[in-house]
Design goal:
single chain, 338 residues, alpha/beta, Rossmann fold, SH3 type barrels, Elongation Factor Tu (Ef-tu), domain 3, 3 domains, 6-stranded antiparallel barrel, 5-stranded parallel β-sheet, 7 helices, globular
């Protein structure tokens, strides 16, 4: 009997993952990572009890703060818009969880991610609306050989139905879409409590006219339209640039304005899962369509990624993930946009 450690978040996806693997004959061990002081793990334990599998709680609060939360805040201080889920998957969910595989003498680890592993390679899930390969491009090839994604061929509706069939208590539990450590107050409240900010001018990049005041540059991201609090014209204005030295937030009118477009970027912290051709497709944001790009390696090991047709709101700190059809070739973090 093969043994598998399943990451149990308390949600429906990880619950069905554990149930499917048990049904297939695996010896399943449920593992919940305690990442925050207010983390509720009761649902995860109840699911494990219902399925009759072991439940273990791993306290990672100190490491999670150091690796994820502190970096998240430091990036915002620098004017970068980070993607903490990408880092968490690399260093916490699959990094430290991989260590647990060895501790329990398991053959595999498994999570409720919607992605597919085939012949040691990473692919998009069947449900392209739920596909999460974008968030896990930075797994190592060694990890890919030890990871199982049982939900690869299911839709979210399928998973809900399976949860009901397995009589899981979380079958109708609402899906969480927020960053897990932000809390009920939301992003702005979290940043306000952890970063000192100073108000500055919101300036029309075309005319130089001061249109209003921002609350702090860390509250805004490139391409943002809502929340600018500029009377009368806000629905036509988009954030296009942040000047940290002078504490100025620049905006431009219209979603087709040239200031939102870029044509190349530099990508650092690169992790490749397969050979990267000079021409392929890439995503610069999770919900974005694939874009044709041309890639070349720089002397410092970073990648120069060009997209001659232009892409809107490519943002430093976000992930650039490469694809060949449905295969995820790897990716990296956007360092600079041109």
């Amino acid at each position: 009997m093969k043994k598998v450690v399943v990451g149990m978040s308390g949600g429906v996806d990880s619950a069905v993952t554990a149930a499917l693997l048990k049904k297939e004959g695996y010896q399943v061990i449920g593992l919940t990572m305690l990442l925050n002081d207010d983390f509720e793990y009761g649902d995860a334990k109840r699911v494990c009890d219902d399925l009759g599998i072991e439940f273990h709680l791993l306290d990672l609060r100190d490491k999670f703060k150091e690796i994820i939360k502190d970096r998240f805040l430091n990036d915002y201080k620098k004017g970068i818009t980070p993607n903490p889920c990408v880092l968490c998957n690399k260093y916490i969910k699959f990094g430290l969880m991989y260590d647990e595989l060895l501790k329990y003498g398991a053959d595999y680890i498994a999570t409720g991610h919607y992605a597919l592993i085939k012949n040691g390679k990473l692919f998009k899930a069947d449900d392209k609306n739920k596909d999460q390969s974008y968030f896990i491009y930075n797994l190592t090839k060694e990890q890919l050989g030890k990871v199982i994604f049982p939900l690869a061929n299911y839709t979210k509706d399928d998973v809900r139905k399976l949860a009901s069939e397995f009589n899981l208590t979380v079958a109708q539990k609402k899906e969480s879409t927020d960053v897990c450590f932000i809390g009920r107050g939301g992003f702005k409240e979290y940043v306000k409590n952890n970063i000192e900010s100073s108000s500055g001018d919101i300036v029309d990049i075309n005319t130089g006219e001061v249109l209003g005041k921002h609350k702090g540059l860390m509250y805004y991201t490139i391409g943002q339209r809502r929340g600018l609090n500029i009377g009368g014209t806000e629905n036509r204005l988009f954030v296009c640039k942040k000047d940290l030295d002078n504490n100025i937030l620049y905006v431009a009118m219209g979603d087709e304005n040239d200031y939102l477009l870029s044509y190349e970027c530099i990508v650092e912290d690169v992790n490749l899962l397969d050979e990267l051709p000079s021409e392929c497709m890439a995503k610069f944001r999770y919900r974005q369509a694939d874009n044709k790009v041309f890639v070349s390696k720089m002397e410092d090991g970073n990648l120069l990624v060009k997209y001659p047709e232009g892409v809107k709101a490519v943002t430093p700190g976000q992930a650039c993930v490469f694809y060949n059809g449905d295969e995820c070739l790897g990716g990296g973090i956007i360092k600079e946009v041109r």
